[in-house]
Design brief:
It is built from five helices and six strands, in the order αααβαββαβββ. It is of the alpha+beta class. It has two domains: 41 residues, Arc Repressor Mutant, subunit A (Orthogonal Bundle), CATH 1.10.10; 84 residues, Lrp/AsnC effector binding domain/regulation of amino acid metabolism (RAM) domain (Alpha-Beta Plaits, 2-Layer Sandwich), CATH 3.30.70. The strands form two sheets. Strands 2-3-1-4 form a four-stranded antiparallel β-sheet. A two-stranded antiparallel ribbon has the order 5-6. The longest helix is centred in the N-terminal third of the chain and has 13 residues. The protein is flat. The relative contact order is 0.13. This is Lrp/AsnC family transcriptional regulator. Keywords: DNA-binding, Transcription, Transcription regulation. GO terms for molecular function: sequence-specific DNA binding. Pfam families: AsnC_trans_reg, HTH_24.
Length: 163
């Protein structure tokens, strides 16, 4: 991939609402060149989706998010891919990552309640043939996601008093 496409990706990752005209101005190219590069990266599935990062703690939402460490036995011929596919096809699953270290897959899921997440792990995930063990971590608070800091600190409006 050429340097121009990398620069365009950096700009879109920072703010996906930036128009091809603005990107062209920022990079000193024509709008047609920017549009063509973006379209080509979309066609090649380099750019897969444009998404919005939300601070769900500011929304009246009682979603429960969890990260699950999963140890599995890879399948002959397909390795980790077949079991990862079975897992990511569940609608509760938001992300699946192949990891190095003490476990094989990291699975991020979302549910309405702790019980719903627990039920997913016990009845769907842990019962899969190649799954050896799971360890569930509930996300209590997000401080930063995708490079964006969720700063919920309130300004201290108390008067400074010195002796």
């Amino acid at each position: 991939m050429d340097d121009l496409k990398h620069k365009i990706l950096d700009i879109l990752k920072e703010d996906s609402r930036r128009s091809p005209a603005l990107i062209a101005t920022m990079l000193g190219i024509t709008e047609d060149e920017a549009t063509a590069a973006i379209r080509q990266m979309e066609d090649e599935h380099i750019i897969v989706k444009y998404a919005t990062v939300l601070n769900w703690s500011k929304v009246d939402s009682d979603k429960v998010n969890a990260l699950i460490e999963v140890q599995i036995t890879p399948e002959r011929g397909t390795g980790f891919d077949a079991i990862a596919e079975r897992i990511y096809l569940y609608p509760e699953v938001k992300s699946v990552y192949l990891m190095s270290g003490a476990y094989d897959l990291l699975v991020e899921i979302e549910g309405r309640t702790l019980r719903e997440v627990s039920s997913f792990v016990s009845s769907k995930l842990s019962t899969l043939d190649r799954v050896l063990s799971t360890k569930t971590h509930f996300i209590l608070k997000k401080y930063k996601q995708d490079g964006i800091i969720f700063d919920d600190r309130e300004d201290d409006h108390r008067m400074l008093v010195s002796p």
